[in-house]
Structure formats: structure tokens, C-alpha cells
Amino acid sequence: MIETPRLRLRPPREVGWVLARSHWGKGFAREAAQAALDHALGRLRWPRAISLIHPDNARSIRVAEGLGERLEGETVVRGGPVRVYAITAEEWARLARVAGRTL
Ligand SMILES: CC(C)(COP(=O)(O)OP(=O)(O)OC[C@H]1O[C@@H](n2cnc3c(N)ncnc32)[C@H](O)[C@@H]1OP(=O)(O)O)[C@@H](O)C(=O)NCCC(=O)NCCS
Fold first, then answer.
1. Which ligand 1 atom sits closest to the C-alpha of 61?
2. How far, in Å, are 41, 71, 77, 78, 102 from residue 98 at the CA level?
3. Closest residue to atom 40 of ligand 1, CA basis
4. Which of 8, 48, 49, 55 is the most interior residue, by most CB within 10 Å?
């Protein structure tokens, strides 16, 4: 979980994912990101979390969409395009209830 204070996105709090290549394709990214979002949006009470993803990063976009994050638009970070995916605490709590998880 990363604070991105220079970005003009409110609130500027990001959840991201990086795995060693030998562990791709096993569902670990989604599982870890779900735990991070449970912590951030549940325990830490962030009102909203974002994930910034390069438009060509299809795997990462699938992870974001699989978690329930929604595409809000595109911006530029360090000279490159990024898609902004986001989810609110209310939406995350609703998805957790549907999945039978307690935050
Ligand atoms: C992004 C990352 C964490 C994803 O983890 P992963 O274990 O590779 O993810 P998976 O292989 O399980 O794939 C995730 C989804 O993408 C899909 N996918 C896999 N290869 C794909 C491809 N070439 N094109 C489109 N979708 C693809 C999978 O089917 C899966 O979707 P599903 O859950 O609906 O079945 C990992 O690829 C990584 O560390 N990449 C380098 C760092 C990075 O780019 N981080 C993100 C920065 S925003």
C-alpha cells in the first residue's frame, strides 16, 4: 500500500501488486491484493483505494477488475499513461459480504 501524495487524486492512496515471475498465474496477486484491501478499507478505514496501471498491462488490469475495482479514467505519471482503477470502502464491504468475508 502506497501513499501517492503528489498525484491529484483524492484520496491519494494506492494498492499495487508485483510478483516474481516464477509465481505468476497462481492467483497470488489477487489473494494478496484482497488482503491488502481488506486491511486498508476495513481496518484502516480508508474511504477509497486506487490502483494505477499501464494501459498495456492486461494481467494487472484483470487483477484489478477481478477485485471489483472500476476504471475511472486515465492520467499521466512520470511521463507515462496510467489507468486509474478505484473502489470505495462501501463497495468493498458490499463485495466482502457477498463473498461471506468479514472485514
Ligand atoms: C501483475 C501481476 C502481479 C499479476 O499476477 P499474475 O499471477 O501474473 O496474474 P495471473 O497470471 O493470475 O493473471 C491475472 C489475470 O490476468 C489474466 N491473464 C493472464 N495472462 C494474460 C494475458 N496475456 N492477457 C490478458 N490477461 C491475462 C489471467 O487469466 C487472470 O485473469 P482471471 O483471474 O480472470 O483468470 C504480475 O504479472 C506481475 O508481478 N507483473 C509485473 C509487475 C506489474 O506489472 N505489476 C502491476 C503494476 S500496475
1. 16
2. 16, 21, 34, 38, 10
3. 18
4. 49
Cell numbers at 6, concatenated:
503528489
Report the nearest-CA residue for atom 30 of ligand 1.
Answer: 62
Q: In this structure, what DSSP letter does residue 47 have? A: S
Domains recognised in the chain with CATH numbers: 2-99 (3.40.630.30)
Residue whose C-alpha is closest to residue 87's, from 102, 75, 103, 72: 72
Place of cell 477509497: 48
Per-residue pLDDT tens digits for 30-85: 999 999 999 999 999 999 999 999 999 999 999 999 999 999 999 888 899 999 99
User: Atom 11 (ligand 1): residue with closest C-alpha?
Assistant: 25
